[in-house]
Design brief:
The protein is an all-alpha fold. Helix content is 84%, strand content 0%.
Length: 259
């Protein structure tokens, strides 16, 4: 209980600010200052949220999107770590792929969707691949930068102790890279959500993006806003879980606890 009130005291502004904005929004809506067909009040949106939860429509579509994000992110992040380690440690490989990566990395994920639909159709494969592509680049860059920023003193000590390459990688380089990797994972999850929603908006028969697009076609702005809100809330929950995991795994990293 003491910890709870301590957290409230520390974060009261983060709680009060959205509450005040919601109250102003609701008041403006009730007074007719905002057209309901363009922007319903918070109470109306909440009622639609409750209804969509009761019918299961929101839970089912959100669950489908979460599964897609998980599948695509795991594939993209795993490849990002594997390739990133090799690129960071092997200079010739880094030089060899620099031009290819320089061309491919700036391409927006959404630009790949038409190509992947032509190659893989509108089934799950294209959506998961889009998410994997977006996640891959984010994690790759974080891993490469993390490894290249490892304190040279750690490497010198390992060399003096005559540690083999595998021990150097697993006991020195990768642990020192974990803070950067977690940053990449958090950003990668964000990119993964953008990717899945974009894919579902264009070609899907299920998922939160599909629900938003279908509601737009029916001019159900309240349902559209519920879908958008659910994406934001899900993102916050995932990000906070990653922060908790990072603090547990990287207790030695003082910067985490100061953040």
């Amino acid at each position: 209980m003491i910890k709870f009130w301590g957290w409230i005291k520390e974060n009261y502004l983060a709680i009060v600010t959205p509450v005040v904005l919601l109250l102003i929004w609701e008041a403006a809506s009730q007074l007719g200052w905002i057209r309901a067909n363009l922007l319903p009040g918070p109470s109306a949106i909440f009622m639609v949220l409750v209804e969509l939860v009761k019918t299961g429509e929101l839970i089912i579509n959100l669950g489908i999107s979460i599964i897609r994000v998980a599948e695509g992110f795991i594939i993209g992040a795993a490849l990002g770590v594997l390739v990133g380690v090799q690129v960071a440690l092997v200079k010739k490989l880094r030089v060899a792929v620099s031009l290819i990566f320089g061309v491919l990395r700036p391409i927006p994920v959404i630009a790949w969707i038409p190509v992947l639909i032509l190659w893989l159709g509108i089934d799950e494969g294209s959506k998961v691949t889009v998410i994997a592509i977006g996640s891959f680049w984010t994690v790759l860059v974080s891993v490469v930068q993390g490894i290249r920023n490892v304190d040279i003193k750690y490497l010198e000590v390992a060399t003096i102790l005559e540690k083999d390459r595998l021990t150097l990688l697993t006991k020195v380089i990768l642990p020192a890279t974990l803070p950067a990797l977690f940053t990449g994972v958090r950003v990668g999850i964000d990119v993964a959500w953008r990717s899945v929603v974009a894919a579902e908006l264009i070609a899907a028969s299920s998922g939160i993006g599909y629900m938003i697009m279908y509601a737009r076609e029916l001019s159900q702005i309240d349902t559209v806003l519920v879908g958008v809100l659910s994406i934001g809330l899900t993102g916050i929950v995932i990000d906070q879980l990653l922060i908790i995991l990072e603090k547990r795994l990287l207790k030695w990293n003082v910067n985490i606890h100061e953040a």
